[in-house]
Amino acid sequence: MQKIFVFLFLLICPVLLFGQKKGSIIKIVSSDRITGNTKLKVSYLINPVFQQDNAILTCDSAVLYTERNYFEAYKNVHIQQLTTDIYSDELQYDGNKKHAHLTGNVRMVDPKSTLTTNVLDYNMVAKIGTYTNGGKIVTQDQGITLTSKNGYYFNNTSDAYFRYNVVVVTPQSTIKSDTMRYNLDSKWTYFYGPTNIKGKDDNMYTENGAYNTTTEDAYFGKKNLYTQGTKSLRGDSLYYYGKTGYGKAVRNIVFTDKKDGTKMFGDLGFYYKIDQRTLVIKNAYIDLISGDSIMVKDKKRPDTLRLGADTLQTQVVLQKTLKLIPKISVKADNQVGEDEEETEKPERNTEVAESAGNKKPTNSQSKEPKVKRGEKLPPKKPDDVSDKLTDSLKLKVDSAKINLAKSKTDTLLKNVKKTDSLVKAIPKVKTDSLSKIVTKKGVKDTINKVIANLKPGLIKPDSAFNPTDTITTRIIKAHHNVKIFKSNIQAKTDSLFYTNADSTLRCFGNPIIWSQGSQVVGDTIYVQFKKNKLNNLQAFRNAFLVNTPADSLRFNQIKGRYMTGFFFEGKLKTLYVDGNAESIYYTQDDSTKVYKEMNQTVSSRIKFTFKDNDIDDIVYINSIEGALNPEVKTEKDNVLKGFSWKPKDRPKSRKEAIGASGSKAKARPKTAPVKATSKTATKPLANKTPVVIKPTVPKFIPKTDSLPNFGIKPILPKKYTTKTAPKLLFKQ
């Protein structure tokens, strides 16, 4: 109530000040006919023309009260004052106060706008128009329409105040507000109450802010919520520069995408429309939905994965631009699938694998052709293509080049008999269906060439539209002091990359992974999820695992060139170590649980099985060398080369996984400058540190006019919040 009182008092205050000076005598310039009553000092005029100072007033008929300096006008009323014209059906004009009360089809026109209403009070001195029964203002240049129940228009300053049911329609958006001010010169719109700004595909809610209808620059300072489809953004202060497509959010930022379950938090964020990129610093972290659950106060809660860093960045990109990590599985004879690190040794099939589930390998997986030393491995078929189609196409293309007599597989000879029938069915297959089935570029090109040869001119391989090229996915980049916390896994690394397309966390720059009583390090570590549940872990180059049983000071150690671990129900179940695998393992007496022996072994490949966070079984697969020594004769600090145990770096809660605040983030790099040499100049950065530059973004501070704002002050941005944002350039 007090707020409304201040609003009304400040509104009528300028009118009272101007009204203290008595107006000049109303003059009759001309009239077709004049009659009157001398006793009552009343005159009746037909088609009169009145003048008072710089204003000309005309109408069809009028009644003039000379003693009161007052007249009433009827039909075709027109007031002309410099560049302002006012039209109405009726007029009551007080010459002493220079106040006009117009009713019926009122229309006030000036070079900037047109105001229409049914009842208008206009002060000729202050040039202030007021309506309280609904009105509309249309700007002359942009065609912007403003409607409201109450309106106050200041002609001198081009300011218009609106109250109750305010609606602004612009070419870009529709604004609905409770209290608003609009300046026709600066094109700035100021909001002082609940406001919705509805765009073509987005919506903005605020209770205090400013918006420019020309530049589309905006600032919002109270209870802000921006939504676009499945995405939303909250923040104490939001800024947006429409022409440059750059936005900024300050304090208590929450970015949410319901489509993929992403939630990003922080205290300073930036948005770049050109590539739909969002960057957050200062206490930045992301919560990713997980399929696992934990018990909190006797209730099941989702075990959300928290990812924090000094700098977080998220973006939606085309999936075809990414190099995805394939799913892996355990196959026959403890073979692990396609590992890029092991391609140099084709005789060892020790590459990538699939999850810990104890699935039996299929016949097609177990019956792999054996290869002699020195021979090349045959190319593998993609999983997406059916066996019959692939075999038939291979036989058709390679029949002229391959000698079937050299084949060692009986099944291949049997398929030769079916080639004719399969080849006849090939022309009936459409390119669209093949493009959906085939995803690998090399296989797709081969199939298209074969089909084109079978029926020349019928199909153009490059003209087929592939719907998979339009699939988009979200990526997340994290840099500096990256930390991860989940109930069954924690991590620390310098930089990280994640995409929903393969659900894989790629950790770069001294990564460390903790799971129960185990710690894994390596040059690069991948952590992969399947159906939103922790599935497998891969450590590349210099992989090292340290496992310490509960209530023990001894360290079981495992190292190798490549390490693949599988999880079952959120716990590490099996681990495969390939390439110069070494291990130190302490055995216990089954009854007394006393350590009795130390087993130190070297092998080309070792399989470990875990139970209750401890090593339960070891299987040495190839080239075994080792020694078994009594525990009393071994040194307590006996460790393998590269041993590292860092429990203090392990995040112990979700709070510890939050990125650093601004002051700490800026004070972090205190190293002395290094002189560039010929060696260091060409050496790439191992952790892919982003290059920081400043974009050319205009500084934006909403304009505050000299006119009173009725005691309702907008929440203006502070000086430090108007600084330009860093633009990070990442190398993928």
From TrEMBL:
GO cellular component: cell outer membrane; transporter complex
Gene3D superfamilies from the UniProt entry: Lipopolysaccharide (LPS) transport protein A like domain (2.60.450.10)
Domain of life (superkingdom): Bacteria
Keyword ATP-binding annotated: no
Positions of the UniProt region annotated as Disordered: 333-388, 645-687
Residue stretches of biased makeup (Basic and acidic residues): 367-388, 646-657
Residue ranges of domain Organic solvent tolerance-like N-terminal in the record: 43-178
Signal peptide boundaries: none
Keywords in alphabetical order: Cell outer membrane, Membrane
Protein name per its UniProtKB record: Organic solvent tolerance-like N-terminal domain-containing protein
Organism: Pedobacter jejuensis
Organism ancestry: Bacteria, Pseudomonadati, Bacteroidota, Sphingobacteriia, Sphingobacteriales
